[in-house]
Amino acid sequence: MYAVENEALPQAGHAEIRIVAATPEAARAVAEVIRRCFAGTEQRSYPAPEGGTRLHLTVDTESAAGPARSWLTTSRPSAHTGAQDDEV
Q1: Which of 24, 48, 59, 81 could form a disulfide with 54 if both were Cys (CB 3.0 to 4.6 A apart)?
Q2: Mean pLDDT of all residues in the chain?
Q3: 86 — phi, psi (to 5°)?
Q4: What's residue 6's pLDDT?
Q5: Domain for residue 22, yes or no?
Q6: What total of structural domains would you count in the chain?
Q7: Does the residue 1 lie in any domain?
């Protein structure tokens, strides 16, 4: 796991996604699927430990398209829902 200390949170309605893969092609394939569901920024690619690729992108969760939109709508917790038993 790659922990980043003191990293600023993304603005409301956005999520930072980190993809770590053995090859750049695998990381790009995953990013392409995510971009089909969410509007996002240009991806940034970095070398990962042990020769892999680390890809970063920011997505706009309020501008979700297709399957992500319907999933987000049904998965949002109600105002009365707290953390689940297995969540910290």
Answers
A1: 48
A2: 76
A3: -90, 5
A4: 67
A5: yes
A6: 1
A7: no
Task: Please write the tens of the pLDDT for every residue from 4-22.
Answer: 566 788 888 888 999 999 9
Q: Spell out a b/e string for 6-31, using b for 16 or more CB atoms within 10 Å of the CB, else e.
A: eeeeeeeebeebebbbeeeeebeeeb
Those residues whose C-beta lies under 8 Å from the C-beta of residue 22, and which sit 6 or more positions away, are 51, 52, 53
Residue 28 DSSP symbol? H
State the residue range of the domain holding 18.
Answer: 14-72
Q: How many other CB atoms are there within 10 angstroms of residue 85's CB atom?
A: 5
86 in any annotated domain: no
DSSP conformation class of 42:
P
Burial of 38 (0-12, 13-18, 19+ CB in 10 A): buried
Q: Does the reported pTM lie above 0.70?
A: no
Q: Considering the domain boundaries, does residue 2 fall inside one? A: no
